[in-house]
Automatic annotation (TrEMBL):
<feature type="domain" description="Protein kinase">
    <location>
        <begin position="21"/>
        <end position="359"/>
    </location>
</feature>
<comment type="similarity">
    <text>Belongs to the protein kinase superfamily. CMGC Ser/Thr protein kinase family. MNB/DYRK subfamily.</text>
</comment>
<feature type="binding site">
    <location>
        <position position="50"/>
    </location>
    <ligand>
        <name>ATP</name>
    </ligand>
</feature>
<protein>
    <submittedName>
        <fullName>Homeodomain-interacting protein kinase 2-like isoform X2</fullName>
    </submittedName>
</protein>
């Protein structure tokens, strides 16, 4: 194992700046390293230090993470408004790259776990969606693809209402136009274009975002797939369509899943996937298998509309509350449809999604038509709804 052995009160030192960090607790364990809660002896406050495994590929990947978060923080979000974790320091301690971040709270997976088998209230989901979208707008402006959006990589930053969340873990992120890896995204949140080995862009993050929002509502992953084949099958069944022919025509792995019959594509029986990345395929699979499972994943291959409309209402809801929530659920489905669009060209951008009635609280009268993307700079004021009377407190 290439992890550094950390114990309470051991000290991580930045030899250049002489800053010292005293390990107090473990916050998490990821593929790339461990994250420890540390006491910064200089500033006298707690921070989170990600201690990367002593492995050349992970070290290089860690430096990319530092560069990307640093750029996002300084150049694109100097006032810390757009829900991206703050990087504070980085150094090498005993051959391990250490990255210091602001200390955050629990991740969204831990937040929904105790609620199982139910998810969060629509009110909270709307609030979280808006915050994640703001981070996604900034990332898109910076030309950054996160490549690993999932509930474990979204953290609550304060436990007081209204809840503030932040996107973390840019350890798999890359620049748009420099997408060198083909095996990315955690399986449940993997987009159809990545799965099929097609070229991709920032739209893959919007797919993962859609999966996360559905999971926050359902309390369990929307596509709890056990293999890539299972994932594709679930996508097709749940969304009622298969990826567009244009995607299937150009994707490298199409023939692992589909047969070309006449002028159309039909899904084949289970295929074998090949892949490469910073992580080997085995490492990736091991990581997938370590993802904590919540309860029994009962639903399987159900249409998205039915899944959400028929999801049990909370027992303590009045008739009026149920009536209101049924309207919001229609808005949620319409919102998810634009994110879980199988054609990446037609999938909504973060800015387009920010204008959706599910976010703005406006009444959805017909399927939402996103505004065309002409503006370069985000104008959050137009769509930031601090107090949204339309939402009430429907649990
Ligand atoms: P992955 O396997 O997802 O690639 P990783 O090795 O890249 O993980 P991170 O996702 O950065 O590591 O961190 C692992 C876990 O540590 C997170 O899911 C989170 O629970 C915890 N964590 C990370 N950063 C912080 C922070 N700033 N404050 C509090 N907890 C954190
Ligand atoms: Mg992570
Ligand atoms: Mg990571």
């Amino acid at each position: 194992n290439s992890d550094l052995i950390l114990y309470t009160d051991c000290v991580l030192v930045n030899l250049e700046s002489k800053r010292r960090y005293v390990v107090k607790d473990m916050l998490g364990q990821g593929t790339f390293g461990q994250v420890a809660k540390c006491w910064n002896m200089e500033t006298k406050n707690y921070v989170a230090v990600k201690v990367i495994k002593n492995h050349p590929a992970y070290y290089r990947q860690g430096l990319i993470e530092v560069a990307i978060v640093d750029m996002l923080n300084q150049k694109f979000d100097p006032d810390d408004q757009y829900h991206i974790v703050r990087i504070l320091d980085h150094f090498v301690h005993q051959n391990h790259l250490c990255i210091t971040f602001e200390l955050l709270g629990s991740n969204l997976f831990e937040l929904i776990k105790p609620k199982h088998p139910r998810g969060l209230s629509l009110n909270n989901i709307q609030m979280f969606s808006q915050q994640i979208l703001q981070a996604l707008v900034v990332m898109k402006d910076a030309g950054i693809i996160h490549c690993d959006l999932k509930p474990e990589n979204i953290l609550v930053s304060s436990s007081v209402q209204p809840l503030i969340i932040k996107v973390i873990d840019f350890g798999s992120a890359c620049l748009e136009g420099k997408t060198c890896y083909t095996y990315i995204q955690s399986r449940h949140y993997r987009s159809p274009e990545v799965l099929l080995g097609h070229q991709y862009n920032a739209a893959i993050d919007m797919w993962s975002f859609g999966c996360i929002i559905a999971e926050l509502f359902l309390g369990v992953p929307l596509f709890p797939a056990v293999s890539e084949y299972d994932l594709l099958k679930r996508m097709i069944e749940t969304l009622g369509a298969q990826p567009p022919d244009s995607l299937l025509r150009d994707a490298k792995k199409t023939n692992q899943f589909f047969k070309h019959v006449g002028s159309t594509y039909c899904m084949e029986s289970e295929g074998v996937t090949t892949a490469f990345r910073v992580l080997t395929e085995e490492e990736y699979e091991e990581r997938e298998s370590k993802r904590p499972a919540i309860g029994k994943l009962k639903f399987k291959y159900v249409k998205l509309e039915d899944l959400i409309a028929n999801y049990p209402y909370s027992k303590n809801m009045s008739k009026e509350e149920i009536r209101k929530e049924s309207f919001s659920r229609v808005a949620l489905v319409d919102f998810l449809r634009g994110l879980l669009e199988l054609d990446p060209e037609r999938r909504w951008s973060p800015l387009q999604a920010l204008h959706h009635p599910f976010i703005t609280g406006e009444l959805l009268t017909c399927p939402y038509e996103p505004p065309s993307e002409t503006r370069r700079k985000p104008i959050f004021d137009a769509v930031t709804v601090d107090h949204n009377p339309g939402w009430g407190h429907w649990l």
